Amino acid sequence: MADAGRNPEVILVADDIPANVELLLDQLNSLGYDTITAVDGPSAVAAAFKQQPDLCILDVAMPAGDLGVDDRSTGFEVCRRIKRDPRTSRIPVIFVTALNDTSDRVRGIEAGGDDFLTKPHNRLVLGARVRSLLKLKAVTDALEDSLRKLRELEKVRDDLMKMIVHDLKTPLTSVLATLEMLSDGDFGQVSTPQKVAIGDAESKSEDLLALIDDILEVARIEEANITLTLAPMAPGALLAELVHEWGHRFQQEQTTVSVSVADDAPIFAADKGLIKRVFSNLIQNAVTHSSTAVHLELSARRAGHGVLFTVSDNGPGIPPEYHEIIFRKFGQVEVPRTPRTRSSGLGLTFCKLVVERHRGRIWVKSAEGKGSSFYIELPSDPAAMEIQVTGAQQAAASGTGSTR
Questions:
Q1: Distance (Å, rounded) from C-alpha 314 to C-alpha 294?
Q2: For 174-184, how does the pLDDT look when each residue is reduced to its tens digit (9 = 90+)?
Q3: Is the CB of residue 380 less than 8 Å from the CB of residue 267?
């Protein structure tokens, strides 16, 4: 029965036999529900879209009008149209019919129906099922509303974040330029201790600029607003270039590195700038999240139709329960006995998005106190995989569209 103090739920009853409609209206009104009626398929569809009732009770066999089906299937077609439209897709549908064939019940389920009653129906059973479906709809609506509000809040946060980082990037670039001029002596002679201090400030500013770039890049990738510039790359050359570029930082942090590239590691196509930033994020995490000097192992080998990279360290490790969380946006893990480092929580999110944009995958194997190994599997030709996936999606969509 409808709750006191609330507007009664509205139920659409669609049947072409007046006696059946009158019986259902009497039963539903006595239970405290408001009702609207329809006498054929087109009027039932129109009433559902216009009134958006809380529940529909449909007769299966009634005039089909211009729905394009025979009269014995009208209710199924009405249900399909209700469930297909986002405005009405969550409205529960009960079929009430004299048909009692198993195939008709299957058709009702395939059409999206939520329940099935056979004429003559039991009043108590009808009431119980109506109440049950309305409660389920209320819970579903509440969850959907919460999800919508959460998405709105996330969008506000993301928009604010993008606005802030855009405003930060310009002055930070000026700071870096000024520090470089100071270090070069453009404003006068600089002592050795001053150079060290300027170098440290410059290094931290570059880290901050990299975080800002990560934030902007994550937003672009999430919005599918990024085009990969693919070029052939050799795994050995890529790893050697990374070790060379990080050489000064490795010396500062007393980090040791070993590189291993299998003879069968294939040439692969990738966006060099984005892929290098993926590895740089992993190296940065390994170097900065350990209280002692770290040993890094970088390796590459063939895997299926592509290449598998591994970035391993002997640092503090990551507890298994956080292996999925660290790849989520703003997901961070507090591990005891590690230095406190500033982090956007976006580095690994960026890595995951870039690797997946290349039609690859990234995962971690780690345990607390036993180091971490990050695995990056990339296809030799992501463009070819893109074509295959798009073709499969179009074929699936075509197949779905051609099935009634």
A1: 6
A2: 888 888 888 88
A3: yes
CA count, 13 A, side-chain hemisphere, 1: 5
What separation in angstroms does the CA of 69 have from each of 60, 73, 78, 81, 143? 12, 6, 10, 12, 35
Give the largest CA-CA distance in the chain: 101
What tokens were used for 202?
A: 């410059």
Residue 310 three-state SS: strand
Burial label, 147 (beta-carbon count in 10 A; 0-12, 13-18, 19+): exposed
Per-residue confidence (pLDDT) for residue 404, from 0 to 100: 32
Tell me how far CA of residue 190 lies from CA of 179, 183, 193, 194, 206, in angstroms. Answer: 12, 7, 8, 6, 21
Residue-wise pLDDT tens digits, 280-307: 989 988 888 777 888 999 999 999 899 9
More confident site: 159 or 245: 245
Half-sphere exposure of 30 (CA within 13 A, CB side): 10
| CATH number of this structure's domain 10-121, picked from the four choices 3.20.20.220, 3.40.50.970, 3.90.1570.10, 3.40.50.2300 | 3.40.50.2300
Q: Mean pLDDT, the chain, as a whole number?
A: 83
CA angle 81, 83, 84 (to 5 degrees): 65
pLDDT digits over 309-347, tens only? 999 999 888 888 878 878 776 555 554 444 434 444 567
* Bridge-based pairing state of the strands 306-313 and 295-303: antiparallel
Domain limits of the chain?
A: 10-121, 154-222, 230-387
